[in-house]
Write the structure tokens for this entry.
Amino acid sequence: MNDNPYFQTHAEDYAEQIMAIQPELYQNTGRLLNQWLPSGGCVLDAGNGGVINYDITRLAQLDCIDLVVSQKAIKKYADHPNVCFFQGNILNLEGISSGTYDAVIVQAVIHHLAGKTYKRTCAQVRTAMAECLRILKPGATLLIMESTVVPWFAAIERLAYPLMQAFFAIFRFGHVYQFSPGSLGHLLENLDGATLLSTEPVEVGRFIWIMGKRIPRKLTPCGMTFYRIIKH
């Protein structure tokens, strides 16, 4: 994941801010996650950001990793002995043994895996997903909730990739690239040792969080898509 200046300075208030701006979205994604998270399972939430919108009481263990760990999140869940926060990078989950988890959650992370070029972005997404699959047990699931955009906007993003990344650099937000649901689905269905089982849109609600701002959903090309992948 790229070193995003915004998250370096807003790690403590990010979860509260984004969940307050998009309550319907996180309620909807939480319901989907509860549907597929294994009861009594050991789960990793990669790129967590302090956002937990699913039922942790059903899980034997929840490990939450991010580049910057929120002290506020640690304090908030201190009374839950099955929840642990630690620093980690989804691109290299070193220190985690292969075949450890019953499920891995990747929620609103993939668009932050952008590199300086589109080719590099796709490579980093593949690397991150390969790491997530590596630490899953055979038959376990990778649950992805990702911010996506309509195909025509994704095409513009790709054509104007250097310009878009320069824009984000000016506002000190790090590299960002949002795939269309279909283009990300194509990438995910070609991962080695895994099968993409399902893809479905998630209702976002009235507002959406963009670079720390509350924007009416109707004014944006953004949505949210859920992908469920099983490891062979």
Observations:
- The radius of gyration is 17 Å.
- The chain has eight helices and nine strands.
